[in-house]
Amino acid sequence: MNATSPNTDANTARMTLVLGGIRSGKSQYAEQIAAGFGGKILYVATAEVWPGTGSMEYRVRKHRERRPESWLTLECPRHVASAVRESGLLDQVDGVILECVTLLASNTLYAQKDPTDYEPFQEALIEEIEALKKLIRQSPVPWVLVSSETGMGISQSDAETRHYCDGLGIANQLLARSADEVYFMVAGLPLTVKKG
């Protein structure tokens, strides 16, 4: 693996996945890739921000400030594929950035009746990911997806956190298999995991 610059040829990769830990630079790198698609980008935001969430409010604000004014934003915490399709925006943009799979997984977990029950969560998340993969295959424009890597520590003792990390790991694997390019961010530097 080696450090690399963003791919600015939109026709090369239909789907790019950018992974990394907290504050690894994955969002900014994904935004650089998306900017290479053209001037009009659809920013699909999965974050649900509640008043009083402090650092989360700050992060979302900073992300919004970084985006060019020509970018469109679609907020959809769940059912991303259907929300994007129904928006009718894919034919109006040069590319899509999904920020992020990490929160999509969290939103899916806490939409379940019992977050400690793993199977319904896993099934719901896989359904989300498969629908997203299908939409990307049919999409007229390239996509870049952002997700966190949570599987580098020890297995967590509480069921919710363990289920979440397991589910996100499976989601990342499914996306990485389908992606044309995969990058792993370390201290702001991209490492090429998969290309071409």
Commentary on this structure:
The protein has a seven-stranded mixed sheet with strand order 3-2-4-5-1-6-7, sandwiched between helices. The chain is globular. With 196 residues, the protein is α/β, with parallel strands linked by helices. Helix 4 runs antiparallel to helix 5 and helix 5 packs parallel to helix 6. It is built from six helices and seven strands, in the order E-H-E-H-E-H-E-H-H-E-H-E-E.
Provide the β-strand percentage band: 15-25%
Output the radius of gyration: 16 Å
Classify the secondary structure makeup into a structural class: alpha/beta
Which word captures the global form?
globular
Q: Which key features would you list for this structure?
A:
196 residues; alpha/beta; seven-stranded mixed β-sheet
